[in-house]
Each structure stands twice: as C-alpha cells, then as structure tokens.
Amino acid sequence: MSPTIYTIILSSLATGTIVTMTSFHWLMAWIGLELNTLAIIPIISTLHHPRSTEAATKYFLTQAAASAMILFSSMINAWNTGTWDITQMSYAPSNILLSLALALKLGLAPAHFWLPEVLQGSTLLTALIITTWQKLAPMSLIYMTMNNLPSTILLMLGLTSSTIGGWSGLNQTQTRKIMAYSSIAHLGWMAMIASIMLNIMIMNLMVYLMMTTALFTSLICSKSKTIQDTATTWTTSPTLAIIMMLLLLSLGGLPPLTGFLPKWLVLEELIMQNLIPMATAMAMSALLSLFFYLRLTYATTLTLPPNTLQMKFKW
C-alpha cells in the first residue's frame, strides 16, 4: 500500500474515533463508528492472503451488525423519548440493546468469537490497532451512556469476559491469539467497574492501552508470532527480552508492577459495594490469565532454546 493511501486511511481511522468521542447526537456517533470500521478494513486486508481477507470479512460483518444494533437502539429511544441526545438514553429496552451492541463491538464475551480470529488473520501492527485504538470509540459511548446502562448486564459481561479470556488463553501458542484473549479479559475488568466507578474504568483503559502498545511493539521488533519465536528474543536484544518479561508480568497483574493497580482498585471497589462473590470470581479469573502470561514470560526470558555453540546473535 502506498504511503499516501496509508496516511489517508489512518487519518480516517483517527477521524472516525474523534467524531464518535465528541458527538452528542446518536447519528453522528454512528457515522464515526462506521467511518472507523470502513477505514480499518483495507488495513486488515493489505496482506492479500486468504487468512487476511477472511479476517477483514469477519471484522466487517460483526462491526456492521453492532453498529446497526446501536443505531436501532438509539432510534427506539428517540421514538419513545423524542430526543437523539446520547446522554438522554432513558428507555429501558434500548439501553439493554445498546449494552449488548457495545459488547459485540468491543469483543466482550459471549460475543467475543470474532476477535481472536481477526487478530490471527492480520499482521502484528494491525492487531495492535484493533486491540488499542479500535476500543476507544465504544468505550467513550459506554462512558457517555453509563448513567442509564443496566449495571447487572455489565457485571455479568465483565465476569464472563474475564473468565473466558483467561480460560481460552491457556490453550494458545500464537502470540496474537494470546493478546486477543488478554484483551477480552482486560475489557472484562473495565466492564465490571464501569457501572460502579467510571474514573477507575478510564484509568484501567489507560494502563491497558500503554501496556498492550508496549508489548505489541516488542513483538513487532522481535518478529514473534508464536511462543517458540519469543524464545529467541534474547538473541535480538537482551534488553528487549527483559522489558518483555516485565510487560508480561505487568499485564498479568503481579503486585509491584503497574498492571496490579487497576485490578487492586477494581477489587477494592467491588468489596466496598458488597459484591464479594463477584470480587472473588474476578480474582480467580485473574489467576487464569496470569498463568498464560507466566508461561510466555518463562518461554521468553527464563529458558534457552535448543542452540549450538556457533549460533550467531542477532545483535
């Protein structure tokens, strides 16, 4: 793809997100989401490979369905309340429909099936865009409509996402699929806290964006597509291997590192709201994801791949 076209597509991607984040009219928000989807389709399918074409098709179908559901729910709301204002979603059925549509758009379980497949079919850089930038617009809609969204549904979505993200990630050997399940689990934590305390959700999102971006950048630098590839990262750069170890442990949420802070605050807030069974279940699900992060860390920095004495270091 020529640099000019790529620049136009990336700027459309940015514009779509910004339009959604700054709009108060449902129609404008929907236009932003559609612009976002249409801009990323060519980015996913640049590889000209059946897998990437399949990924682009899957992504397009799910996002288009979710956008249509969002438009439908806002239309029902406008029909009943007479306003298209995003902050005035007061009709209950449209709120339920909206929360399900946003779950599909973000890839929250049980509507998560498209995310690992799409990431597996795209390049590491595209996977980075899908797991970070593409989450901003739906998250901003959650932020704006939070006063009216049904909290029970969000709590259940959060719990299932966190559990399924941890459980399914255990079985993976591809780094992109691991990152997809990691993304699902992290979004589960955000959905869990959204109905209770929005500023913790925003902080959780910020920490997630920083760590995911850093880890994807490391994977791109070391060209690691499977767990076996990460084992040879130290031949590229020992420093990079150490940074990857810290990032993986931080994503898992081990105490002295940054990733522990959002989890700690979420659990504390859940206990304050007397949702102790929910907090226990979330802590248990965090152990599942911690296990596969630890396995990846172990493969990356704590083992030596089979090599000969004459093996050349990339550095």
From TrEMBL:
Superkingdom classification of source: Eukaryota
Annotated transmembrane regions: 59-76, 96-115, 149-167, 179-199, 205-222, 234-255, 275-294
EC number, as in UniProt: 7.1.1.2
Subcellular location: Mitochondrion inner membrane
InterPro entries on file: Complex_I_Subunit_2, NADH_DH_su2_C, NADH_UbQ_OxRdtase_chain2, ND/Mrp_TM
GO biological process: mitochondrial electron transport, NADH to ubiquinone
A Pfam family reported for this protein in Swiss-Prot or TrEMBL: NADH_dehy_S2_C
Chain ranges of the NADH dehydrogenase subunit 2 C-terminal domain: 290-315
Record domain NADH:quinone oxidoreductase/Mrp antiporter transmembrane: where: 25-288
Record's bilayer topology term: Multi-pass membrane protein
Principal location listed in the UniProt entry: mitochondrion
GO CC annotation: mitochondrial inner membrane
Catalytic activity: a ubiquinone + NADH + 5 H(+)(in) = a ubiquinol + NAD(+) + 4 H(+)(out)
GO molecular-function term, one example from the UniProt record: NADH dehydrogenase (ubiquinone) activity
Keywords attached to this entry: Electron transport, Membrane, Mitochondrion, Mitochondrion inner membrane, NAD, Respiratory chain, Translocase, Transmembrane, Transmembrane helix, Transport, Ubiquinone
Class of this enzyme: translocase
Its job: Core subunit of the mitochondrial membrane respiratory chain NADH dehydrogenase (Complex I) which catalyzes electron transfer from NADH through the respiratory chain, using ubiquinone as an electron acceptor. Essential for the catalytic activity and assembly of complex I.
Similarity field: Belongs to the complex I subunit 2 family.
Protein name as catalogued: NADH-ubiquinone oxidoreductase chain 2
